[in-house]
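I would love for you to help me understand the pair of lines that follows before we discuss the fold together.
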Amino acid sequence: MDESSIINTYKRYAGNYDKIFGRIFEQGRKEVVERMACHNGDRILEVGIGTGLALNYYPFFTQVFGIDISPHMLAVARRNIRQAGLKNICLAIMDAQRICFPDNFFQKVSAMYVATVVPDPRLMMDEIKRVCIPDGDIFILNHFSNTHFLPSLIEAMLSPLQKFLGFRPRFSLHRFIEDNELDIVDSMPVNLCGYWTLIHARNHKP
């Protein structure tokens, strides 16, 4: 995966993304925002906001900043925001591996369906930890490699196509948690057949 292939892939997806992935991934998005337990004035960062499918779930009393590397996905998000009349959202084109916000700026950070897309997930997580306050909440929602025979076989068959698909079909949950030294509060399966996992982590740092 590299930046240009990601942008090109999501240029293809942008026009029909909501129709294809909206309903399939809806439960996971709702679950993330519900588990945030937002407070009045919370600053929230959504990394890889895409077309903004989760934006309607955030309370009006929060400030939501959404970033994405795809200008085509963000164009759809801006249209959706206008149509919904949302006033508490700010969008920006930004690389998840180089987040242009100061340290300790957000109370809560989410990355939904992004960890398998970015070229270097560890860089993304380092940046997420940096901009999140100490003991703040980090929510990662993603698919991780399945150990059952048939899903594992399908993932292996799709792996050579990852540049075209726009994500890595094989992605280890254990390695992701270990590599990023995540302090897990809880995790749960979500969406169709529980194939995706929602991780809630605490941002422990000095």
Residues 36 and 142 are 17 Å apart (CA to CA). The longest strand covers residues 132-143. Residues 71-84 form the longest helix (14 residues).
